[in-house]
Amino acid sequence: MSHPASLAEWKGLVDGLSIRGQAFVNGHYVDAASGETFECVNPADNSLITSVAATDSEDVDRAVAAARKAFDSGAWSRMAPAERKGVLYHFADLIRTHQDELAALETIDMGKPIADSTTIDIPGAARCIAWYAEAIDKVYDEVAPTSHDTIGLITREPVGVVACVVPWNFPLLMAAWKIAPALASGNSVILKPSEKSPLTALRIAELAVEAGIPEGVFNVLPGFGQTAGKALALHDDVDCIAFTGSTAVGKMILGYSGQSNMKRVWLECGGKSPNIVFADCPDLDAAAQAAGFGIFFNQGEMCSAASRLLVENSVREAFLERLVTFAGTMQPGNPLDPDTRMGAIVDQVQFDTVMGYIEKGREEGATLRVGGGRALEETNGWYVAPTIFDDVRNDMTIAQQEIFGPVLSTIAFDSAEEALAYGNDVRYGLAAAVWTRDINKAHRVAKGLRAGTVWINCYDAGDLTVPFGGFKESGNGRDKSLHALDKYVELKTTWIDLGA
């Protein structure tokens, strides 16, 4: 499928968009019960896109009631698996049909390059929904190996009403990672997108109904975490909440579950991933490009960003020279320009956070190799130049805290043991990478790293067939793969005595 080919063509498409700002409850767009709205702003130039419904606890009550009624009716939860599969296939196809519209919404909403929206985010979301559709009638229940006069059945049942609270950095893709397995399992879903990027979630709501998902099964509540998000986490009739976002908020959601009905809580939280480059790296050029892409892709707004570069001293300078050169190819530009490789930071709050960390790096004695400032200030947008720090100690703030911006900390080491110690010396454990020709070293270091994903001689690779999630304070549970289905079902044992 061909896309608009120029900045002017994408701007023309954006100018013609009809943008939804209302919540979506029980199959219909509705205003927030309070009538309150918030402004949705384009980070590329700080211009107003639209006003969006600011839902709160009353809206949550309405959405949960609609979701519960739909679940109990069995219209979706007891639909034949083959029929449910067909509906989700149609849903995925509709996302593909509207992919240019959805890509444009994603780009103006959170600032990512349109080239990424069109080739990664939107097709990835459609593929995710289709992948879980295909899984619906491929996952079998079990019969236990019992004695001849008994039968033990182990069956999976949908958990009920699932709240999916997703972040702003990959708005539709992260939503798909959660709603696809939740819907495939027969649950009713309430999606709460981030207030920073609600537009694609609101648009796909009507595509879900068009695809045949019954009213009340898929609802979307835009709003703030401290109101709508908290109300969902505390609600006694929400059976499960799946969250991607900061570790601090993840801990709050765990607390809310304990204060309410002990709902299942699945968390994919922060990261401070070590990218370990040994002197026997098979290709320094390829490793430097992967390291740069790993931190500058999506403006560094990735929980799995390669934000800590651990490089062996003997190749450090040669590697950094390559990396600085690569940074020059990732300068920020207009997100709607198909040639742009790095866009705008999502909003001023996040921009100020990133700039604060850069200043902290300077104060603590790290050496700024490139970047460190605001870019394209004349646009009135929130752009940060790709930034690389050298001479970073692992106890520095920029080496320990998640920055969520295009800021790389470089830490030198002299042995595999030292690299492994530095790699694990953070509270996070989401991802890591190892670059070496030595297969034994690769396996030893990979086994020693406390991370949910370890890449060998690559970074940020994989697909839907493998799980994604973290150790330690990076969360629990897994997105992607068949393992994600486990989060949205309950296991039931039925024991039958044949001798009775």
Give structural notes.
This protein is α/β, with parallel strands linked by helices. The chain has helices spanning 7-15, 57-73, 81-97, 99-110, 114-135, 171-184, 199-211, 225-234, 247-259, 284-296, 313-328, 348-363, 397-400, 416-424, 439-448, and strands spanning 23-25, 28-30, 37-42, 47-53, 142-144, 150-158, 161-165, 188-192, 218-220, 240-244, 264-268, 274-277, 308-312, 367-370, 374-375, 383-384, 387-390, 407-413, 428-429, 431-435, 453-456, 471-472, 489-497. The protein folds into 2 domains: 7-269, 3-Layer(aba) Sandwich (Aldehyde Dehydrogenase, Chain A, domain 1); 274-467, Aldehyde Dehydrogenase, Chain A, domain 2, CATH 3.40.309.10. Helices cover 39% and strands 21% of the residues. The chain has a 7-stranded mixed beta sheet with strand order 14-17-18-13-12-20-21, with helices on both faces. The protein has a 5-stranded parallel beta sheet with strand order 9-8-7-10-11, with helices on both faces. The chain is globular.
Helices and strands in order, then pairings?
Layout: H1 7-15, E1 23-25, E2 28-30, E3 37-42, E4 47-53, H2 57-73, H3 81-97, H4 99-110, H5 114-135, E5 142-144, E6 150-158, E7 161-165, H6 171-184, E8 188-192, H7 199-211, E9 218-220, H8 225-234, E10 240-244, H9 247-259, E11 264-268, E12 274-277, H10 284-296, E13 308-312, H11 313-328, H12 348-363, E14 367-370, E15 374-375, E16 383-384, E17 387-390, H13 397-400, E18 407-413, H14 416-424, E19 428-429, E20 431-435, H15 439-448, E21 453-456, E22 471-472, E23 489-497
Parallel strand pairs: 7-8, 7-10, 8-9, 10-11, 12-13, 12-20, 13-18, 17-18, 20-21
Antiparallel strand pairs: 1-2, 3-4, 5-6, 6-23, 14-17, 15-16, 19-22
